[in-house]
Design brief:
The structure is a homodimer. By secondary structure, the first copy, chain A, is mainly alpha-helical. Chain A has helices at 15-38, 45-52, 56-62, 66-87, 94-113, 119-131, 133-157, 167-188, 194-205, 208-212. The first copy, chain A, binds a DNA duplex through residues 14-16, 19-20, 23, 44-46, 54-58, 60-61, 64-66.
Amino acid sequence: MTDERPAPAAPAAGLRERKKRRTRDALLRAALLLFIAQGYEQTTVDEIADAVDVSQRTFFRYFANKEEAVFAVQDLVESHFVAELRARPATEGPLRAMRAAVLAAWDTVEEALSDVVPVELYMRSYRLIESTPALLAVHLRRSTELEERISRLIAEREGLDVDGDPRPRVAVAAFSGVMRVTGRLWGQGEDTSVAAIRRMTEAYLDQIGPALAADWRTAPPVART
Amino acid sequence: MTDERPAPAAPAAGLRERKKRRTRDALLRAALLLFIAQGYEQTTVDEIADAVDVSQRTFFRYFANKEEAVFAVQDLVESHFVAELRARPATEGPLRAMRAAVLAAWDTVEEALSDVVPVELYMRSYRLIESTPALLAVHLRRSTELEERISRLIAEREGLDVDGDPRPRVAVAAFSGVMRVTGRLWGQGEDTSVAAIRRMTEAYLDQIGPALAADWRTAPPVART
DNA sequence: AGGCTAGTGACAGCGACTGACACTTCACAG
DNA sequence: CTGTGAAGTGTCAGTCGCTGTCACTAGCCT
């Protein structure tokens, strides 16, 4: 989806190219900062364009809509996760591989998007998404697209056909469901650090087994928050 | 969330009330029919209002936005599911109860919304949701709200605290994830019947266990679609 | 140097939504 | 019954996201 980018740190191309990239980056940063400062809905596209000193029309030439500006960074992080998942050894089972990939991804987000925006800004925009209904809705839809991508990847790892065997999609669905809960709770919590979300992710993933047991009364609960 | 409705089949109140209900129902039906006939985005609020012979402003007095018209029926179905879940005996474990509730809900949707719209219309609108990105996004957000509601219900059944024990949310998340996949695949499939989605639901839910096993190579795959 | 074209600004227009206000019509007390 | 208040509606004007069009400027390439 974003794989045709020349290179993460593109070596200077023509002057035109560089100029384009600069306006795009400027728009992106301005948008995120404004959204975070005054809220997504409270920020008009005109404001963003004015902040960068371009016309509104130009904003829409770079981003199909207001949302797209928000999810540009999210895109990077997701690709980063997929890359980590691809890197997992084939010996790991599906759940194990996904779990390892998310955790590894959190450990290395910083470098993954250092060129574009500081992690701090990403974490803030992630919280913005979680707390803005319109953005959350889009985020969830995009997540299902990511899920499909992951399902195919998992199926491939296991040498299966996604359409012939329900297990890849089911496993990914269950996994993603848990990730969702994690994201939501992190968004509501106090600790906005990467460490916090990593910790919560780990804790919740570990509960999949116990949670699906037929009877909870025999298994031990685990404190958290 | 929709629990303060006077009664499913409200006995005639004042004339004003009845008139109100009639315009609302008319708007709802007109909206759904138009959406299905020509697509959600291709239908303007003006068209809907004109079809019922009221002003655009009036439409927005009944529905906060265009989307809301689509999800009014969905609301009924979801409440229906929750009711079925409430009715499950406390002896059933969480997963077992949720599974039984969905299936029972599908078996009785027809009566559940017969007063408002024919099931056929609901199934069509559900497909519309699945195939319209903007609607799907909202649907998913609403689903997470439903999930939270269910999580609390499950926690209550088991005598647990949702915030103290992750298992209710994790179990519901996994369950819902699978339901999502089912809905999506049904939406893409040929068979648009209630029976079809019920059948798929059952089949996919049965795959949760096998899908979460560490190693899939030992377990048997199951053909489908 | 000079033509080509990508990137932009200015402008006009549509559709979703909102606020304000005036008007009609039901509800209900007297 | 009737007068009065409030509920429900229409009209109008305005904001904002987003799109099409067109003319213009400035890198690009020969």
